[in-house]
């Protein structure tokens, strides 16, 4: 059994994907070819934003967002400590300082109460110029944007929404309005790394915004700070584009995505109904839809369950066993054990089950059986 079965997905979409790849090979516009613009238009429409700008990967997408917000030396960005390294890495790469925030124990996402506490502490110390909050839609569940937006407005901060795992997720408010992941905050980003909910067959990423000025800056930054054309360079940028072949693959994968999202949610429902009595299954707040980048359980004795699964050939993984403030690369920031009690506990107790849209009923039952006998 595969943890994420990308080959099964390819078999399902093979003829259409092969056709798309051949079209690119025939027209030969390998960089920023017509499929890239076609994909960007479709992504913007799916997410519900004015601008979708593709780039080379989800890490670059965050870097480009930070560049557009002019975040650099002396600035600080609030980032959840329980996330993938790239969220915090890009802040440090921009020469700014990540200020870590604890997590909500049920959603695993940034805790709005701890967020405000950390902001007040930073303001009292006066060491940094606080610029932005980076939310992460961890494991596919959108962050608590209503609460985070209130804090951002109160303290005059921008929101960068890292939806690398969240693409496809959504929040429906009390009035019945639904907003998809990627449309929250000032700038949102995603990743098309193969194992993400919407993945390509290599590296890829995208940036989403409703702000025309940010969109223009990001389009310039991603091609060496171009002005009128790529040989007119008006600012220092990077080289970060999505290959046309990857855009072509993504066009077919995006077409299949709504069904895949439904399959993922059906699998999550199955896990929840079969495991919910015995294990702490992931919580989805009312009105939220997860894209289930991971299906993550919490157990004090996770080793027991992971060993049992492994003995029967069922893979399971730990995302994440190390918080950002515990990473060697961030040791100079001076955080101590106990600074983030919820996240530290999660790092010791979480484990994730196989989750992908093409899992057979037999495979689903095997996972459940090994956890419940
Ligand atoms: C995967 C991921 C990224 C980085 O995406 P890449 O395409 O691998 O560079 C950033 N943030 C989070 C939360 C991720 O899961």
TrEMBL record:
Coiled coil: none annotated. GO terms for molecular function: transaminase activity. Keywords: Aminotransferase, Pyridoxal phosphate, Transferase. It comes from the Bacteria. Belongs to the DegT/DnrJ/EryC1 family. This is DegT/DnrJ/EryC1/StrS family aminotransferase. It comes from Oceanisphaera ostreae.
């Amino acid at each position: 059994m595969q943890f994420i079965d990308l080959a099964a997905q390819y078999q399902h979409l093979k003829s259409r994907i092969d056709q798309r790849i051949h079209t690119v090979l025939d027209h030969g516009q390998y960089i920023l070819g017509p499929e890239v613009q076609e994909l960007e238009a479709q992504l913007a429409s799916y997410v519900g934003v004015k601008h979708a700008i593709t780039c080379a990967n989800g890490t670059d997408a965050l870097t480009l967002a930070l560049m557009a917000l002019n975040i650099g030396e002396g600035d600080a960005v609030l980032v959840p400590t329980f996330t993938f390294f790239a969220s915090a890495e890009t802040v440090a790469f921009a020469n700014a300082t990540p200020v870590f925030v604890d997590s909500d124990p049920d959603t695993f996402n940034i805790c709005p109460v701890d967020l405000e506490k950390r902001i007040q502490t930073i303001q009292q110390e006066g060491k940094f110029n606080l610029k932005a909050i980076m939310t992460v839609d961890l494991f596919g569940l959108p962050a608590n944007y209503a609460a985070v937006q209130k804090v951002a407005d109160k303290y005059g901060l921008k929101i960068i929404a890292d939806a690398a795992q969240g693409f496809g997720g959504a929040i429906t408010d009390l009035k019945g309005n639904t907003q998809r992941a990627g449309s929250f905050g000032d700038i949102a980003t995603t990743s098309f790394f193969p194992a993400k909910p919407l993945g390509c067959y290599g590296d890829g990423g995208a940036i989403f915004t409703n702000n025309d000025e940010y969109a223009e800056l990001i389009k310039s930054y991603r091609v060496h700070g171009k002005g009128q054309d790529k040989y007119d360079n008006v600012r220092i940028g990077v080289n970060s584009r999505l290959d046309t072949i990857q855009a072509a693959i993504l066009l077919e994968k995006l077409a299949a995505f709504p069904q895949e999202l439904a399959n993922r949610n059906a699998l999550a429902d199955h896990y929840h109904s079969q495991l919910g009595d015995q294990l702490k299954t992931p919580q989805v707040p009312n009105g939220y839809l997860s894209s289930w980048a991971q299906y993550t359980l919490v157990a004090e004795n996770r080793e027991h369950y992971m060993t049992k699964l492994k003995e029967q050939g069922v893979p399971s993984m730990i995302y994440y066993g190390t918080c950002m403030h515990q990473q060697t690369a961030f040791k100079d920031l001076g955080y101590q054990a106990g600074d983030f009690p919820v996240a530290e506990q999660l790092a010791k107790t979480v484990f994730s089950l196989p989750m992908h849209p093409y899992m057979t009923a037999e495979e689903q039952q095997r996972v459940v059986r090994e956890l419940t006998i």
